[in-house]
Design goal:
heterodimer; A: 393 residues; alpha/beta; Rossmann fold; 13 strands; 36% helix; 18% strand; B: 627 residues; four-stranded parallel beta sheet; 24 helices; 11 strands; 51% helix; hydrolase (chain A); metal-binding (chain A); cobalamin binding (chain A)
């Protein structure tokens, strides 16, 4: 089975009209297309960076607030400036884009403009025909992030085609730390990671970060890969982010994750962060030896205390984060989880955060835990247990 | 329970109260007779007017009922225009033309406002009674000014401030009152300066570019901002407190500091609907709400003629919500603002009358009565859950016809769509109205089509006799009543769901409103493509040979965009030192719990919009979009 087509969609800067693009995204997904959605009010350079890192076949832009000629052309120009000629740019803007505009835009490299009244089916068919499977070059000699993006595509495609690529030896660049984040849906993993990225970028102005983020999908069907839309701090030149659909695999990751992770771990990043999809109680997604630290992010609202006994990751995670701890139940949750962890024999840390809050001290604390020097692989922390202190964090 | 839960209870209790009173008027003979007497008195005092044809008509139409129960139900459940619960209108006469013959006696609906009558309103806490009774008292023959304001608002916003200013003067040339409504360009709406990287092509597109106090001065040049005939409405929410501060700064420069209490107008400033639907949010929700309440507190105390928030369903409707969702989210947002203001220690009778609303009017059947029902729920909720008096119970609303209902295919049909929507808007007793131009699907409207849209209103209100002779001309049909009941029940059900999610804020964090709106929008599109929802000339009676019309588009020339950038750079260079000081002071105040609006007003004198927004973001963070 051929790999799904991947496209990136976005709404330009100073434009919040996302009604049309939401409908189009849903239609694409229903017809087998994987959509990396960057969101609304997005700069051309963010779109270009994301398109390259995600190695999509095409970028779809939905514009309703004017300035479309300049904006579309700017995206094309920046792609070409970076030597990219195999990512197409298409889009529409209802009645706001005229035929005259379209002629100018196409002359300057825009692939296609859809006008008011185009049917959703027409758009889907066009994407399938125009951006369907086709050979893409290797990008040898291109800048590192472009080569890396293409190699990740090749790994994903190989798995989709039923081939198992040769696994490279499981080793990492020296100094690379791999951190796995997991937890139930709605716990705020994405926001938490984005806040961590903000801190990591600030603490060291040369550090480079890779993020491998996952969203669920069924074999042969599309997916909405929407983490970039909310990860505002991670749209940064020192962050390489890749959104993956699980393509039918249970447990929170994709069949191609391990190989992709190996590649990223060898690419000289300071931090490689993996985020699973929202997982169930029995999930234990990080079997990889490459993962140095694992973080379980929980919502205070997990139900009765008995539920905690069934969550496998509470035994395995190095750090347990209770996010959204501004909620009423947070105090109870912290003490219930603390008691649950006391039964475990290994060193674990418990942190309470409110990731949505600007400059949250809990997130600062988590960042400290994830950046402190280690002597060897497994142990997350040399610090004595300080749960009473942590609880106040 | 948040206040919204209490509002639901209040409406339920009020409906029960009405039915009990109906029963009582049928069983207690004395009470029944009182109601009948009151009714007869009201009818006897309705002035008679004369149409140009010579036909004599009462200035208020009432149902032909004479039984005590029916009378009680009508007076309590619907109310006369201008009386609680305001189903038929916030004011007594709305669009009626002044009486031609002043010798005809103009009475009021009732002669006496004694204590017994106020009890009829069913207020539990009694707080609402004082004002209500006062209003019922024999009115001072209510001499309406012969030159009342037109309910028409003149909406514009294009290119640079001087271009929009010229358009305002063009539009207002034949208007008695100057009620201007201003649209801003994308960079301004997002608090970004025109000289920022990557926004050049957006300068002056879709609205006017405003970066500094100097732009604000140019924007309203030639208008007397303190005149009772002038009001400025500004359609901006994300950076609203900063734009408001800039407006005040501009007014002070032109007219001196004494102008402030005279300023009259509206700023949209509705952060909740931005997060729920329109996506123009700059700061995290809680910080945005703090800046907003700081501003509202200031205007409530210092600018008695200003409406500091326009609680907007329009963008919720345009984003694809159902009409019921639009009304339910707008009303619940309004109650949430009221709750925040009350938490600041402000009196509901001070801030309540300064809350105004903005609704979308489309072609779905709910629009027969959506605004009527909204007015009723607001009045009951404000009176019984917030203890508001008469003026603070009134739901004052600006309506705009639906832009989303307009299509590019055979676009001249949009005139008909807008006309039907205008009719619905006025049937609902809107306080002011904007009619969209037929060329809206293509571009910022051109003068030709704006003129037609504005004339549509004049034809309806001035030329036709539909609204100018008699109040209630179209109110109260069995169909309208059926829609009212169904819509009210559906809105209360939405309230209950929001309440279950922890009130408006809890529901926002759960992205409840967003996902409901998105689902409705998707269904709407599907219905168009499947033909369930006929759109003439688009999916029904389509002309396959139609060519897309070519318009002279309102595009901003590059030279103008460059001019805006140059002017901004000059402003920044001139004020560099003062700006830094003002920004530092602002940042300091924002870190405390103090009201930061005074510091914002100082900063607006010397800083650009983008400078202020950036500094504030450093302190409170950036908005994280919800998808």
């Amino acid at each position: 089975m051929a790999a799904p087509i991947r496209v990136l969609t976005a709404v330009p800067i100073c434009d919040g009209h996302d009604s049309a693009i939401n409908t189009i995204n849903l239609e694409f997904i229903r017809h087998g297309i994987e959509v990396v959605y960057l969101g609304y009010h997005r700069y051309a350079q963010d779109i270009v960076r994301a398109a390259i890192q995600e190695d999509v076949r095409a970028v779809g832009i939905s514009s309703y607030n004017g300035g479309h000629v300049e904006f579309f052309v700017e995206v094309v120009k920046q792609l070409r400036k970076r030597g990219v000629d195999d990512i197409a740019v298409f889009g529409g803007g209802g009645g706001t884009i005229t035929h005259d505009d379209q002629r100018v835009m196409q002359k300057r490299g825009v692939d296609k403009i859809f006008f008011a009244g185009t049917s959703l089916t027409g758009m889907v068919d066009w994407v399938h025909e125009r951006y369907g499977p086709g050979k893409r070059g290797s990008r040898d000699g291109a800048p590192a992030d472009m080569q890396l993006a293409r190699k990740l595509t090749q790994i994903e495609d190989a798995y989709a085609n039923g081939k198992t690529p040769r696994k490279p030896a499981a080793k990492k660049s020296s100094g690379t730390r791999v951190i796995g984040f997991t937890g139930p849906g709605g716990a705020g993993k994405t926001t938490l990671i984005d806040e961590l990225v903000l801190r990591l970028l600030h603490r060291d102005d040369s550090s480079r970060i890779a993020i491998l983020s996952h969203d669920p999908s069924v074999v042969g069907e599309g997916a909405l890969l929407g983490d970039r839309a909310t990860m505002i701090n991670s749209q940064h030149d020192r962050v390489f982010m890749r959104s993956m659909a699980t393509r039918g695999q249970a447990g929170g990751l994709s069949p191609a994750t391990e190989d992709c992770l190996q590649l990223l771990a060898q690419s000289g990043f300071d931090y490689v962060i993996i985020e699973t999809v929202g997982t169930g109680q029995e999930a234990m997604p990080f079997q990889s030896k490459l993962v140095d630290q694992t973080v379980l992010v929980m919502n205070p609202d997990y139900g009765a205390r008995l539920q905690l006994q069934k969550i496998v990751m509470l035994d395995l995670a190095d750090i347990i984060v209770v996010n959204k701890s501004d909620q009423e139940r947070a105090k109870t949750a912290m003490s219930e989880i603390e008691r649950r962890l006391q039964g475990n024999s290994r060193e674990q840390q418990l942190v309470s955060t409110v990731a949505k809050r600007h400059r949250d001290t809990g997130v600062d604390r988590l960042c400290d835990l994830l950046t402190q020097p280690r002597t060897s692989g497994e142990t997350a922390s040399e610090e004595p247990k300080g749960r009473a202190r942590l609880r106040r964090a | 329970m948040s206040k919204l839960g209490r509002v639901v209870e209040a409406v339920e209790n009020y409906n029960t109260f009405v039915e009990n009173e109906v029963k009582r008027s049928r069983t207690e003979k004395k009470f029944g007779q009182q109601m009948v007497d009151r009714w007869n008195q009201i009818k006897a005092n309705i002035p008679i007017g004369t149409a140009p044809t010579g036909l004599k008509l009462p200035r208020l139409a009432l149902p032909e009922i004479d039984e005590a129960g029916d009378i009680t139900r009508y007076l309590l459940a619907d109310g006369l225009p201008g009386e609680f619960p305001f189903l038929n209108g916030a004011y007594r006469e709305m669009y009626l033309e002044p009486m031609q013959n002043p010798t005809i006696e103009t009475g009021t609906y009732e002669k006496n406002g004694d204590g017994k009558k106020s009890r009829l309103n069913g207020s539990k806490n009694g707080k609402g009674n004082g004002a209500s009774a006062a209003h019922n008292r024999l009115a001072p023959a209510a001499p309406k000014p012969a030159q009342a304001e037109e309910p028409t608002r003149l909406f514009s916003g294009l290119m640079l401030a001087e271009d929009t200013n010229a358009r305002f003067h063009f539009l207002g040339a034949h208007q008695r009152s100057k009620r201007l409504s201003t649209a801003f360009d994308g960079p301004t709406l997002y608090g970004i300066d025109s000289d920022a990287d990557g926004v050049f092509g957006k300068i002056g597109e879709g609205g006017v570019a405003v970066d500094t106090v100097e732009d604000m001065i140019r924007l309203y040049d030639g208008f007397d901002l303190g005149s009772p005939d002038f009001s400025a409405s500004m359609t901006i929410s994300g950076p609203a407190p900063i734009i408001m501060a800039m407006y005040i700064a501009a007014a002070k420069r032109r007219f001196g500091p004494d102008i402030v209490p005279k300023l009259r107008g509206t700023i949209q400033a509705d952060i909740f609907k931005e997060v729920q639907a329109q996506n123009e949010t700059i700061f995290p929700v809680e910080a945005s709400l703090r800046f907003l309440t700081d501003m509202m507190e200031y205007t409530t105390r210092n600018m008695p003629r200003w409406y500091p928030v326009s609680i907007s369903g329009y963008h919720i409707g345009e984003a694809g919500s159902t009409p019921v969702q639009q009304a339910a989210y707008t009303l619940s947002n309004g109650f949430a603002y009221a709750e925040m203001m009350a938490a600041r220690g402000l009196d509901v009778n001070d801030f309540g009358p300064r809350l105004s609303f903005f609704l979308d009017c489309g072609l779905d059947v709910e629009y027969i009565a959506l605004t009527r029902v909204s007015r009723r729920i607001w009045a009951i909720g404000m009176r019984d859950a917030f203890g508001a008096g008469h003026k603070a119970q009134m739901f004052k609303v600006h309506t705009q016809t639906s832009g989303r209902s307009l299509v590019a295919a055979e676009f001249k049909n949009n005139l008909t769509r807008t006309a039907a929507e205008l009719m619905l808007s006025y049937m609902n007793g809107t306080n002011s109205c904007h009619s969209n131009s037929a060329d809206e699907p293509f571009t910022t409207p051109s003068e030709e089509w704006i003129r037609l849209a504005a004339h549509g209103q004049a034809i309806l209100l001035d030329e036709s006799g539909i609204f100018k002779h008699t109040m209630n001309m179209l109110s109260g049909s069995p169909g309208m009543k059926a829609v009212e009941r169904a819509v009210e029940a559906a809105i209360l059900e939405e309230f209950r769901e929001i309440e279950r999610l922890g009130g408006v804020m809890g529901a926002v964090e759960n992205r409840y409103q967003r996902s409901q709106i998105q689902t409705a929008a998707h269904r709407y599109e599907q219905q168009i493509y499947s033909g369930v929802r006929p759109i003439i000339a688009l999916n029904k009676y389509r002309n396959e040979n139609e060519e897309m019309p070519e318009f002279e588009l309102a595009r901003t020339p590059r030279s103008k965009q460059q001019l805006q950038v140059d002017r901004l750079k000059k402003f920044k260079a001139k004020n560099a030192r003062k700006a830094e000081e003002a920004l530092n002071r602002l940042a300091e105040v924002v870190e405390t719990d103090e009201n930061c609006f005074p510091a914002l007003m100082e900063a607006a004198e010397v800083c650009s919009l983008g400078q202020i927004c950036e500094r504030l973001q450093e302190v409170v963070g950036r908005f994280r979009p919800m998808v």
